[in-house]
Every structure is written in structure tokens, then in C-alpha cells.
Amino acid sequence: MKILVTGGAGFIGSALIRMAIARGHEIINLDCLTYAANLENLNSVADNPHYTFEKGDICDIAFLQHLFAKHQPEAIMHLAAESHVDRSIDGPAAFIQTNVIGTFNLLDTAKTYWEKLKGEKRDRFRFHHISTDEVYGDLQIDDPAFSETTPYDPSSPYSASKASSDHLVRAWARTYGLPTLITNCSNNYGPYQFPEKLVPVVILKALYGAPIPVYGKGDNIRDWLYVDDHADALLCVLEQGKLGETYNIGGNNERTNLELVQTLCTLMDARKPDNISHAALIKFVADRPGHDQRYAINTEKIHTELGWKPAIEWDEGFEKTLNWYLDNESWWRPLVKEDAFGSRLGLKTSAAT
Questions:
Q1: pTM
Q2: pLDDT in tens, 128-146
């Protein structure tokens, strides 16, 4: 298929593009290259004849109309979004603009384009919206995992903006008949993740011997999904999913934040042994406002209906991730300079060796 991917220079988007091209799809990558986007994530496919990059903003309707007319995509995979909870608390306006207004613009452009298609092209077209499990809100320890019918109850400006975009997609499907698919995923981790996110922060803090901050008591629980597993699931849903349906994608790896940090510290002890355990660097800090206690994904639907399940186990995935960051300093080094994000992360000028 010829697929327009929005946000393809980001962490999940770039993993999706690398996998999609390896499987024979043609990709148009639309990205406005905000702070968390990095075209280096796509160096391996940059010269592939099935890959095209277009710099642009989903909030620019005229540009979107031009892009659809130029490339005539057969499917849309919409990943472009502001996605960091802490940033949404500090500055929610950007999240409303990109995640809500941007999604509306993309939907409206796609609807107009799709309505003009004929025959097989019209039947083949689909709009796949990629969202998050955070739209479902908070779970207590003994609550059943999120299913596709769990009521929405977002807690942060980020999750509220994603819930809004999900509702828009469903409305365009029901009102206009736009052929849509929605997926809601759990926490992703893996190579090429921007170093303000939890997993790379822990790895880099441990590497530098800097304090590793853990919110509250570290007892908040998340389900962790290796990014290549997520990309595989997204393509599975695009190719096999029933139009109008939602599919939850999870890694079946629930852990507390403290367990996650301790796992990475243990792996760092083995890879970079120091005189003390890296776990001694853990520092508990004031909790995040509105911090959800637990997220958990029930993956029964995607497994039963589409035959998909994650392939990467907890230990394997985090070992691969840690080793990638330690072996690819040239990728993350420019992103943590003191004048950019180094001060945010509390990192020194040069890494310990």
C-alpha cells in the first residue's frame, strides 16, 4: 500500500516506517520536525525509492490538501502528536492545537479526498488513528485491565487531547462513513526514543552517575510495549482490522515504575560495573500532579480477531534498549547538550566511560 504516515520522524513513527518499508509498503512521511522528531531515525531508509519525506504541519489545511493531491495515498496512519504528560501540564495549548485541531484538519482533508475516490481505490482506503491507553484514565490495583469498551476518563491535558482526537475519528466514521481504525497502546520503549522519556532518562542518568528521579513511591504501574512490537501490531491492524473498530495494543508487561528503574539499574550494573550499585542513585521526588496509579491493557481482542501478540519479553526488550543507548552515543549526544535538554536531565557535559 501507499501509506501517508504523520509524525514519521518520531520514536514510534520511525519504527513503523522502517518496518513498513521492509515489508514492501510505499511510505510518505509527513512531519513538521518539532523537538522530538529526528530524521536520523530514518537513515536506513532515506535513500529507499519507496520512501518520501514531506516537511509540513497537520495544522496547515492547504498543505494537507496539496499533499493528498500530490501523493494519492491509499491509507493514512496518523501518529503526529504532542505526547509528553509533563509538558502538557506545563503548556497544554500546544497539545490542543496539534492533537485536536491537527487531527480535525487531517480528518476533514481525508474525508474530502476519500469522497472523490472511485471503485477499488475508495474501497481500499482507510484512516488509522494511533492513540494511547491514557485516554481510559486510572486503574486501581485490582481493577480489570482496559478493554476497547472501557469508558474514557482522561487525567492530564495530554490524555484529554488524545481522547478528543479519538472522539473526532469516531464521529467522522459514524457521520460521514469515513473508513477508520483506532488503536490505543500502552507505554512504548526501545531504540530512538527521545531522551526526556522515562526509560532513556534512567539509562542516561545511570550512565552519568546522576540521581535517578522516581515520582512518589515509585508504585505507579504501567504496561510496557517494545516499539517494534507496536509497529508490527499497527501494520497488522491496518492490513487486517475491521473498519470502524478499535484495538488495544499492549505488551503484557505490567511493572511498577520502581521495578522498571531497578531492572535498568541491574542491567547497567552488568554492562557498566561501578563500585556501587546503580540502584543507589534512585531518588524519590514529589509526585506528578494527577498521576494515574495504573494502566493495564487487555489484548484479547487483537489476539483473538487478528492473531497478534507481542514477541519481545520484558528482560530481552530492556536489555536491547539499554545496549542500544550505550552503543549509539552519537545519536543521543546532540539531544542532551547543556543548551538544550542537558540541563533538564541534569546531565554533565560528557558521559562517564
A1: 0.94
A2: 999 999 999 999 999 999 9
| Pairing assessment for the beta strands 75-78 and 2-6 based on DSSP bridges | parallel
Residues facing residue 129 across a β-bridge: 78, 182
Give the integer Cα–Cα distance in Å for 286 and 214. Answer: 8
Give the neighbor-by-neighbor strand order of the sheet with 187-189. 187-189, 221-226, 254-256
Rounded Cα distance, 209 and 348, in Å: 10
Query: Greatest CA span in the chain, whole angstroms?
Result: 68
Domains and CATH numbers, the chain: 2-190+223-249 (3.40.50.720), 198-220+255-294+314-345 (3.90.25.10)
Q: Where are the alpha helices (DSSP H) in the chain?
A: 11-22, 61-71, 85-90, 93-95, 103-115, 119-124, 157-176, 198-208, 227-240, 257-271, 300-306, 314-327, 329-332, 343-345
- Which sequence positions are flagged as catalytic? 133-134, 158
Distance CA(313)–CA(280), nearest Å, equals: 26
Cell of 125: 482506503
Each residue of 69-113: pLDDT tens digit? 999 999 999 999 998 888 999 999 999 999 999 999 999 999 999
